[in-house]
Amino acid sequence: MKGKQEYKVQSLENHAQITRILIILDSEKKLNFQSFVDDRGMSTTTLYRTLKALKELELVDTKLDNSRYPPQNMISLTDKGKKVAKHLKEIEEILSEE
User: What is the number of domains present in the chain?
Assistant: First the structure.
């Protein structure tokens, strides 16, 4: 099993996907895995690896939503993830300024 330090390195290598997922979750609050694939065109392999790294970094959490049929794992930001997403949005705003 990889340690947190290895995931930190991986997260830097995949920063575009991580940034995208964190910002999406910040605005949507919670989504299921399939909505990332269907609605946002992410590959399942990339999404799975990125979410695994985000979970190891304690930036996202998954919870089973039994109110849906069939029950689905919903992905949401942790408090730490919300802080990171806030800073990422600020960085994107600065970079998009003309």
Answer: 1
